[in-house]
Amino acid sequence: MFTKKELGTDSRSSSSDLEDGDREHHRSLLSNGEHAFDKHKALRSEKRQNRRNWALLSAHVFLFLLEIGLILMVAAPKIGGKDDEAVQLPHHEWIASAIEWEVRTYDDRFGIHGPFRGKPRPELDAAWGDMVRNYTVRIPKPGWRNPSSPDYVLAEFQDEEGGIMGTFSFLHNLHCIKTIRQYLLPEDYPETAEMYKATPEQPIPRHIDHCFDILRQSELCHADMSLLVFEWHKDDPLPVSLHHAQHICANTEKVNRFLEANTVPPFGSILVHPWTGKSPY
Fold first, then answer.
1. Are 240 and 230 in contact (CB under 8 A)?
2. CB 231 within 8 A of CB 242
3. DSSP readout, 120-147?
4. Chain center to CA of 250
5. What would the pLDDT profile of 101-158 be if each residue is shown by its tens digit?
6. Disordered: where is this region (predicted)?
7. Which of 9, 22, 43, 257 stands 20 to 30 A from 59 (CA)?
8. CA distance readout (Å), 23 to 31, 83, 276
9. Is the peptide bond before 142 cis (omega within 30 degrees of 0)?
């Protein structure tokens, strides 16, 4: 049996021990709480830092992609619009006043009509002759071409204005068409037939063959993309193509005015062979 003293002592001792335990537990809880709070605070700080890092990274990625896009926009070739004008001939400034584009429909009717069709006659010969009348033009120096070698010298006009003798590609093509037309009618154009004779080695004379191929290359070069549609006719077994399409053409009057202003006939002393000293025409 325990005595009161013993019980009291034990009771006080137990109470004291409990109070000490409570204080330790309280301190432990406070310590744990502070540790948890610090940990939570650190996590919140870490999350904020991560968010800032992602924001900075996103901004850098956006700026990098923007720069790449701008570089591609500047470097990539443009399709359509005014940038097509960058493809120009070396002498585009000289001929700029001669070219004015317009929409035109060809005269594609069959049959004999107009001055360029039908049998040879004075009207037809005059019409074809007028088309190549202004064949040689005075090209301002330097002529947009190197003088080549000692065996090849640019043909210069020998008057005060000087300049290089030249022509335009479309005039050469018209000359080819006119020559082929006359070649097909040897009885009417005996001079042309005499000049261009067929041989077993060249059933198509060299000059005529050259003209055919130049015209082929010219058509492929310009690639007129005007549409020709087909339709059925009651009395025709095959579809018939309609040629009266719209085409983009150079204004003929402006071209002719430019030719008139720059044409120089190469006759007489204005053109002299540099080696023989003679006029070729």
1. yes
2. yes
3. --HHHHHHHHHHTTT--EEEPTTTTS--
4. 19
5. 999 999 888 888 899 999 999 999 999 999 999 999 999 977 677 666 778 888 999 9
6. 1-31
7. 43
8. 12, 86, 129
9. yes
